[in-house]
Amino acid sequence: MRGPFPPVAPLTALATAVLLLSLNACGGGTAMGTPPTVVPPLGITTTSLPPGIADTVYAGVTLQATGGVPPYTWAVTTGTLPSGLTLNGATAAISGTVATAGVSSFAVIVTDSERPTAKTATASLSITITPRAQKIEHVIVIFQENRTPDNLFQDPVLIARGADIVQSGINSQGQTIPLSPIDLGNNYDLAHTHGAFVEMCDLNATTGQCKMDGAPTTPHSAFMYVKPSDIQPYFQMAEQYTFGDRMFQTNQGPSFPAHQFIISGTSAPAVGSTSFAAENPVGLSGVRGLGCTAPSTVDVNLIDPSGSESSRVFPCFEHPTLTDELDATGVTWHYYTPSPGSIWTGPNAIRHICGPNATPPNATACVGSIWMNNVILEETQVLTDISSNKLAQVSWVIPTGLNSDHPGDTSATGGPSWVASIVNAIGNSPYWADTAIFITWDDWGGWYDHVAPKLINSYEYGFRVPLIVVSPYAKAGYISHVTHDFGSILKFIEETFALPSLGYADAPADDLSDCFDFNQTPITFRTINAPLNAAYFLNYRGPRTDPDDD
Questions:
Q1: 61, 99, 141, 512 — which has fewest CB within 10 A?
Q2: Residues 155, 229: contact at Cβ < 8 Å?
Q3: Per-residue confidence in pLDDT tens, the chain, 550 aa
């Protein structure tokens, strides 16, 4: 027999339960026993960031947040990250290559994905960047004369490594002209004025690029290459260290403006000028010098932004140079040159460096303190300064004509040995440990080259010139395909010694960083074999003439 029936719920309670179940089944109301979701508050948990080192890749960090509704987006709201670093808005990663040392304070904001109203949180952070350990304390710029890579570096080792050097070229008739061998000391000099640049460039008006088919074949051919047997020291240096096959002279003309660009990044006559000194000065008579010591008969063509050379100016200029920045920060420098008044002695055309002994054009000598303390009128003194531990932190070295590689003189064959003597002097001295040597040529000299330069205005850039970078930290056996110009050397010096930018060709230039590996084991120096050694140049008693008149 069954037990008693359970109590029956009151009718009102049953009705209520049925109503609730019906509402829930229809999508209305809230299931009993399931509380609403509570979103935890959004917050940034990163409280500090690791330090970095200038001129190196930042170790990287990813900012962290909790709470809110992922995914998050990130941004910097106030202040700035260290120059060269960026914050990825989606991943919260801070990365990049740090440009300069210092402390950067900034605030970041994180925004979540909660809807309809997103939540935000902020945090104040900072990154400390310390200076990179200085591995380069000395820079030497060796400035040779009038060559192109196609003309001077027919080196099978470099070519096998990918150096962009060809054995033939195209003339204005569309004919392929094989390059023929010629002695380093050849007997003719090709035109290399701005007009010669324009002719060889043969601008394509549609593309705005040089067609590179205007090199002359008569009366003397530009389609020549120097016999490798004449230049083996150059090959040794280029093969052991770094060779640049995209080094361009900054200017589209001859030596006088080139030697202005290598010390200041411009050949403008004055601050704010939109024109450049485009050619070599003309009108010299007698034995008076050039630059600020030139006679009143001397002037130089200016090229304006339209490309016109309709105006002329006395070749005594006034604008900032890299040497001013060096002086301002106490970095020592010397400019070694065989003559005070040539077109290759760049400082003589900068009035505040020259310090002329009378108001130009009546001056006959540079006598200012900057000149007297820094311009060395005996280029071989660079060798004795190295051996006596008196080398300045930055040096420019200008050769004599016989040692310059300048065409037109059959006896001008000493260039490879001259350059090797300087490199050997550094390499076999304590200076090797912290020196970077840049060997380049001031202009193309009229020789054929097949690579078209990038044209950025009426006078920049010119054709390719060779570049060799020698240093214990230069990449060994490396071919640099990065575009460089004279401004790149200035920028390297600026960054090495923490100098401000001049704002001329140095500003847009690269800094040659691809040519170096400061983390590599320093290269052990091997003496460069050359026909002539340092003793030969130190004891030479013949005429010490300038390279030429162009």
A1: 99
A2: no
A3: 444 444 444 434 334 333 333 444 444 444 455 677 789 999 999 999 999 988 778 987 999 999 999 999 999 999 999 999 999 999 999 999 888 889 999 999 999 999 999 999 999 999 999 887 789 999 999 999 999 999 999 999 999 999 999 999 999 899 999 999 999 999 999 999 999 999 999 999 999 999 999 999 999 999 999 999 999 999 999 999 999 999 999 999 999 999 999 999 999 999 999 999 999 999 876 555 789 999 999 999 999 999 999 999 999 999 999 999 999 999 999 999 999 989 999 999 999 999 999 999 999 999 999 999 999 999 999 999 999 999 999 999 999 999 999 999 999 999 999 999 999 999 999 999 999 999 999 999 999 999 999 999 999 999 999 999 999 999 999 999 999 999 999 999 999 999 999 999 999 999 999 999 998 999 999 999 999 999 999 999 988 777 666 6
Question: What are the C-alpha distances in Å from 113 to residues 63, 106, 361?
Answer: 17, 24, 74
Query: Nearest Cα to 102, choosing from 130, 122, 124, 121?
Result: 130
CA separation for the pair 239, 74 (Å, rounded)? 48
Go through 514-538 and write b for each residue having 16 or more CB atoms within 10 A of its CB, e for each that does not.
Answer: bbbebeeeebebeebebebebeebe
Structural domains present in the chain: 43-130 (2.60.40.10), 138-539 (3.40.720.10)
In the three-class reduction of DSSP (H, G, I as helix; E, B as strand; rest coil), residue 258 is classed as helix
Picking from 273, 260, 272, 178, the residue whose alpha carbon sits closest to that of residue 217 is: 178
Helix orientation angle between 486-496 and 255-264, rounded to the nearest 10 degrees: 20
Cβ distance 393 to 137 under 8 Å?
Answer: yes
Cβ within 8 Å of residue 187, ≥6 positions away: 408, 409, 410
CA dihedral 498, 500, 504, 510 (to 10 degrees): 40
Q: Which residue shows structure tokens 């002359």? A: 216
Interior/surface letters 271-293, b for 16+ CB within 10 angstroms, e for the rest: eebebbbbbbbeebeeebbbbbb
CA distance 298 to 547: 20
- Strand 394-397 and strand 138-144: the pairing is parallel
